[in-house]
Design brief:
2 domains, Lyase, Ornithine Decarboxylase, Chain A, domain 1, eight-stranded parallel β-barrel, amino-acid biosynthesis, binds pyridoxal-5'-phosphate, De-COase2_N, TIM Barrel, binds lysine, alpha/beta, nine-stranded mixed beta sheet, pyridoxal phosphate binding, De-COase2_CS
Length: 466
């Protein structure tokens, strides 16, 4: 999703009313570049493959729907951030997708892990992630979560309210510990993304406002507390962001806050985290920056701002989630029904129902996000028709892919694949309509590993103890 998607300009031509960014494909079988993980291709029969394994075979083995995660691709994306951001700490944002295997892989590639609940913390700890390399976020962390984090020796707790500073201080006293804390600030940046996933404007729940003075007060309170070790400032401006200007403004404002704080508390804070939020490609419209481009842009702005302020450059960190997990995974579905629906002007839209839906990918319904899809089980010689991929749920808004051109002969039994679902799909999945959540299958060198098993109706019934 980017700004032009949100604007939703529609183009009506012979193919029907489709968004301006969506072109009628020359070859409806071709994979769009930039949307798939690096080991995905189509074979001579037009069957989608991942590390050489065909999805027809995989569907036989693991069933559908399923998320198929390209392990080497995820590791490579993690490494690309670590090497591009040389000298910085890179924390993988577990909220985008977390299981013990992924926590282990990113640790092995030299990243820390950012968690934002006791549940995510438990996964990272079970995976054996060094607690010193874990950061804990959250605007309403419970006492139990804070206690667990302190006792585990979590490397940094990012505080988000005065209530929490008080709570954490008391706990630290009781436990005789000195947790390392960062203060999450809102920089006032209006990030160019969906309202629900922008987090640096003033009128929302996260962080302490720089403009309103709360950020400075929070820094002072943490610094003055004998049992809190204030290490720095944290800013996260939002998610799925393409334009670098928001990060630049955030970097400037946080560094100015740091300089101001230095005058008051007599200490130049050693660390600064600029959060995550780096956009990825969901459709042909999106062109994300590389980690190298992001690192260059952020490093330049930090250096010039520190020079202008006469300040030392702090130890820096970032927290990418989507940019590491998102492109690594595609969802594999089985088509169940196909229904042409007449539209105004004599056009037709093909409603293609698959065996998943908004319970395994809520992003289309929640943010109006755009996705792409391809017929995965065969090559088709049929012409492309404007289609909408929908799920099994009892909800008109249960749309997975709002607009896509699919071959007109798509039929029940075909496999359909949706790329770039590695972030915020399984992690935001639900059991709406008592639909069990799909498994996450890791694929490496042709081998399949179940990372998260398929949920069953029995799993759901087990919770129903009334
Ligand atoms: C504090 C924090 N850090 C990191 C992230 C990761 O964001 P993204 O997955 O867009 O990189 C988020 C989510 O928006 C966040 O809230
Ligand atoms: N869940 C959002 C991103 C929010 C990230 C968490 N702060 C998405 O799917 O795009």
């Amino acid at each position: 999703m980017n700004a032009s998607h949100i604007a939703g300009a529609i183009h009506a031509d012979a193919a029907g009313p489709h968004p301006r960014w969506l072109d009628v494909p020359e070859d409806v079988n071709a994979l769009l570049p930039g949307l798939w993980s690096r080991h995905v291709a189509k074979d001579g029969q037009g069957v989608l493959t991942i590390t050489g394994r065909s999805v027809t075979e995989i569907a036989e083995e693991v069933g559908t729907p399923a998320y198929l995660l390209d392990e080497d691709d995820l590791r490579a994306r993690a490494t690309a951030f670590r090497t591009a951001f040389d000298g910085w700490d890179v924390y993988y944002a577990g909220k985008s997708f977390l299981c013990t295997a992924v926590a282990r892989w990113v640790s092995e590639e030299g990243l820390g892990v950012d968690v934002c609940t006791g549940g995510e913390l438990a996964v990272a700890l079970r995976a054996g992630v060094d607690p010193a390399r874990i950061g804990l976020h959250g605007n309403n962390k419970s006492v139990v979560e804070l206690r667990t984090a302190i006792e585990a020796g979590v490397g940094r707790i990012i505080v988000d309210s005065f209530d929490e500073i008080g709570r954490l201080g008391e706990l630290a006293e009781q436990l005789g510990a000195t947790p390392r804390v960062m203060v999450r600030v809102t920089t006032g940046v209006e990030a160019h993304t969906h309202e629900y996933i922008a987090t640096a404007h003033e009128d929302q729940k996260f962080g302490f406002s720089i403009a309103g003075g709360a950020a400075l007060r929070a820094l002072r309170e943490c610094h003055d507390h004998p049992r809190l070790e204030l290490i720095g400032i944290h800013s996260h401006i939002g998610s799925q962001i393409f334009e670098p200007d928001g990060f630049e403004v955030a970097a400037r404002r946080t560094l100015r806050l740091r300089a101001e704080a230095a005058k008051i508390i007599g200490l130049e804070l050693p660390e600064l985290d600029l959060g995550g939020g780096f956009g990825i490609a969901y459709t042909s419209e999106d062109s994300p920056a590389t980690p190298g481009q992001l690192a260059d842009a952020l490093t330049k702005i930090i250096q010039s701002e520190c020079e202008a302020l006469g300040a030392t450059v702090p130890h820096l960190s970032i927290e990418p989630g989507r940019a590491i997990s998102g492109p690594t995974t595609f969802a594999l579905y089985r088509v169940g029904t196909v229904k042409p629906v007449e539209l105004d002007g004599g056009h037709t839209r093909l409603y293609v129902s698959i065996d998943g839906g908004m319970s395994d990918n809520i992003r289309t319904a929640l943010y109006g996000a755009d996705y792409s899809a391809t017929l995965a089980s065969r090559r088709s010689g049929a012409e492309p028709v404007l289609s909408r991929v929908v799920g099994v749920h009892c909800e008109g808004g249960d749309i997975l892919v709002r607009d896509e051109f699919l071959p007109s002969d798509i039929a029940p039994g075909d496999l359909l694949a949706v790329p770039a679902v590695g972030a915020y799909c399984r992690s935001m999945a639900s059991n709406y309509n008592h639909v069990p959540r799909p498994p996450v299958i890791g694929v490496r060198d042709g081998r399949l590993t179940t990372l998260v098993r398929r949920e069953t109706i029995e799993d759901l019934l087990r919770l129903d103890v009334g």
